[in-house]
Amino acid sequence: MAKVVVLYGSSRTTSNTELLTKKAIAGLDAKEIYLRDFTVKPIVDGRHAEHGFDEVDDDYDTIIKQVEQSDIILFSTPIYWYSMSGLMKNFIDRWSQTLRDPEFPDFKKNMSGKKAYVLAVGGDEPHMKGLAMIDQFRWIFQFVGMSFAGYIIGEGNKPEDILQDEMALLSAKKLNKELKAIKAAY
Amino acid sequence: MAKVVVLYGSSRTTSNTELLTKKAIAGLDAKEIYLRDFTVKPIVDGRHAEHGFDEVDDDYDTIIKQVEQSDIILFSTPIYWYSMSGLMKNFIDRWSQTLRDPEFPDFKKNMSGKKAYVLAVGGDEPHMKGLAMIDQFRWIFQFVGMSFAGYIIGEGNKPEDILQDEMALLSAKKLNKELKAIKAAY
Amino acid sequence: MAKVVVLYGSSRTTSNTELLTKKAIAGLDAKEIYLRDFTVKPIVDGRHAEHGFDEVDDDYDTIIKQVEQSDIILFSTPIYWYSMSGLMKNFIDRWSQTLRDPEFPDFKKNMSGKKAYVLAVGGDEPHMKGLAMIDQFRWIFQFVGMSFAGYIIGEGNKPEDILQDEMALLSAKKLNKELKAIKAAY
Amino acid sequence: MAKVVVLYGSSRTTSNTELLTKKAIAGLDAKEIYLRDFTVKPIVDGRHAEHGFDEVDDDYDTIIKQVEQSDIILFSTPIYWYSMSGLMKNFIDRWSQTLRDPEFPDFKKNMSGKKAYVLAVGGDEPHMKGLAMIDQFRWIFQFVGMSFAGYIIGEGNKPEDILQDEMALLSAKKLNKELKAIKAAY
Fold first, then answer.
1. Total domain count for chain C?
2. Residues of chain C neighbouring A138 (CB-CB closer than 8 A)
3. CB contact under 8 A, B131 and D134
4. For testing the chain C interface, which of D50, D136, D143, D160 should be mutated: the one with the most C CBs within 10 Å?
5. Residue B137 is part of a domain; what is its CATH number?
6. Most buried of A178, B134, D13, D21, CB within 10 angstroms?
């Protein structure tokens, strides 16, 4: 049975992005990870340091292990300043370390083949100004060999605005069906 | 005399991005801020919280004050995963708080009219895969009313690679002249 | 009552893009213009020629007059090679001439304030690879002051494929409602 | 010896784009094709027509044969409305026909492996608003398997403006060296 992991990049509880994502995973057994509840330090680039990367004392490894063991990843992020939140960016930046970490010898291989989805809500013309972020996720997924299976962009500013975004809700419903079908097929 | 502030988003000392930026500010009296030397916490979105944003105990305010008082800002960031570093993203995310902070009543007004430049070095086809990041900076600067005066994309992976990127170095040299002319004209 | 003009850039009759667009204008009194049925020559840039632009003997003026008199424009184009069709591009290129044509003294003013929509169907990951085209339409509309009121991207290759694209059809239905509401409100 | 073909999409003689391109091919034996001097009709999509594509009576085949036999292609286009000119777009649109044309049985195979460069001059912030066009060329080249070896964006409006764009001229000079080195190496 396909394992679904949701990475939440929102800094606010029950954010619009979370509300939208909950529709997409309704009735699914998904592992939900709220990045704001963990400490993930910014990467310190040790690729070219004599002794490589320093060990980091934070929650990153715990999270990335769950990500590595999943089959489907939902990147659920508010659009902050036209891109993913810093919370999520710091998490992804750390992949550069994991790619060289002997404790994760097959990280890239394990990531490749996973299905990735992006769910993002923004308040400032997200269907226009959020497209660069979609491009970036595409590059990111391509680098590690994940397939970019789809994305949903929603519009909202104030709490619960997203519940008025008819098309985003329909897309979430459709994604829910799709995820259930994938789960069933495994 | 125009005040120049450089925001470094690199996590590594004397990174390629820093080396390139140093060429651009050679002989200029610029305030250099290395974000990695400070603590900037991820934003906690308090826009819709009953009591607004919580006060944050970190170095952000010290930095943003210097940014607010500048005339020209250089955003110097390595391209990590096709975007600015998480260090820099967290810093910019916090602007959402400053925009509502009574201690910075004229933040947007003070930011508008500043000139912004981006200097970025990446290792994976940055002239192609870094363009989405340029788009994002454009939206960011537009939001606060800064003019996007120019950008330099360089290519490099290993330490000092950038010193082989002839076009990036020439661009930095040209930017240096431009900055000196602006300084002199104030 | 708001006047709606549809510009079809498809080279094939009852193309997927057309089928999708027909859903969006069902029951509306819209002026439909099939660019393939007209001759629109490529622009010859006469902006800096001694005598300005040469008069062009083709159907362009007839079409642009109808566009100029509309309130809402639907740009309905297949995604050919990751952008609008050459048919439609040649039509838009000619706007540079109209902007300087004494027979259209208020062209820019008349265009500004119109609402523009883009409907586009592509066969090669249009939700990813069609985003650059959306960017371009945004710049185009911004230049002449039109508001970019929305876009629908559909997926399809073979004839009638689009009828299987549930989300695109729903979006077209929603646009239909929106257009009817605008019409009624005028 | 590597064969270089230049495709000019300008509608004006000695346009800024042409001037820039001439710097890049100075002293090189390159085949220069001015699309404005030829007739290339818009594609009529016959992929799904009973009898396939109709034969087209124009100059397209003559041009594409020279392109097919080259090793390096320079796409030299003014930025019209934030994309390549309609002249050039119509030419590329026709590749869809060539891909199915029995007279060009190895078209895709022959195109793959070629090196492609884009040289483009625009008047409205081309370093920002021209990036979507670069994205499109990337997708185009990727589709047929060509490598996107580089691009130069220049700024200019009035005739000869480009001669003031120091960075563009330097880039062209550098490209010239690069092309000569490639030629010599074959």
1. 1
2. 128
3. yes
4. D136
5. 3.40.50.360
6. D21
